[in-house]
Amino acid sequence: MGNACLSRRNRRRRATARRLSHGFGSPPVVATYSICACDLDAGQWGVATQSKFLGVGSIVPWAAPQVGAIATQAYANPRYGPGGLELLRSGLSADDVVERLTAADDGRASRQLGVVDAAGRGATYTGPACHDWAGGRAGDGFAVQGNILVSGATVDALAETFGTTAGAPLAERLLDCLGAAQAAGGDRRGQQSAALLVVERDGGYAGLSDVLVDLRVDEHRAPIEELRRIYRLHQMYFGVTPREQWLEVDDALRAEVQERLASLGHTSLEEWAGIENLEDRVEGTTRIDPAVLAALREAS
């Protein structure tokens, strides 16, 4: 029995050695491009990222309202996320957070990190052992970085697109940045996953969450395009149409709405909207959100 146990143990050791020799025992490389950014006027912070890596949104993006945003990638250290946000909460600047996190990390040579703080200051770090092309840029309101890229044009596209889209909602700017980065070359190994995270104090579901947008495409041939599609759905369900754009419900429109509701087996718009996850877009009966009306017409 002792010899049998020893034999099994030796086989396990040899199998482990084979995995290590083929690279399977190394930390996964989150070869990625990303942008951390903020819109101080809107009180929003966010991160967008794309990678030839499964489920990049589970590792790279971190953000908290009135605190900042962080992206951790390359031979990623996920503890940079919560640890970095805690340092930002303590009042440290983006530069100081990057310095504090990397100085305490023996693996810093293989790390890549982006930080935007509560004041909108950006900082980025690329360890000397990150795979080419690797680098980043930082400025007012943003930090962009990438590794295993076709070229530095990908990072330049992230930064330049963020600057030229000023005035648009932060989530849409971040999506545009990803699209421009991919068009400029992107990850030289291709595409696999993408993610978008935007936070705002009480800006999430029913005003009871700080997460305004948290969308992920974990595995897809065209993850950025799929992320855009899911974002459009998110806006349909959870977006806000300015009240001045709501439609007056006159007699003709009221009759149409009631007829369509009846054909679907409902007696009120509120009831139907609750079933269809559009309850946040319905208030009263004298005016109707055009997005709700469009959804009702499509359903009936």
Quick summary:
The chain has 300 residues and is of the alpha+beta class. It has nine helices and twelve strands.
Tags for this model:
9 helices, 300 residues, alpha+beta, elongated, Glutamine Phosphoribosylpyrophosphate, subunit 1, domain 1, 3 domains
Description of the structure:
The strands form three sheets. Strands 7-8-1-2-9-10 form a six-stranded antiparallel sheet, with helices on one face. The termini are far apart. Helices cover 37% and strands 23% of the residues. It is elongated, with a radius of gyration of 24 Å. Helix 2 packs across helix 3 (94-103) and helix 4 packs antiparallel against helix 5. The chain folds into three domains: 1-26; 32-238, 4-Layer Sandwich (Glutamine Phosphoribosylpyrophosphate, subunit 1, domain 1); 243-299, no CATH class. With 300 residues, it is of the alpha+beta class. Strand 7 (135-139) and strand 8 form a beta hairpin.
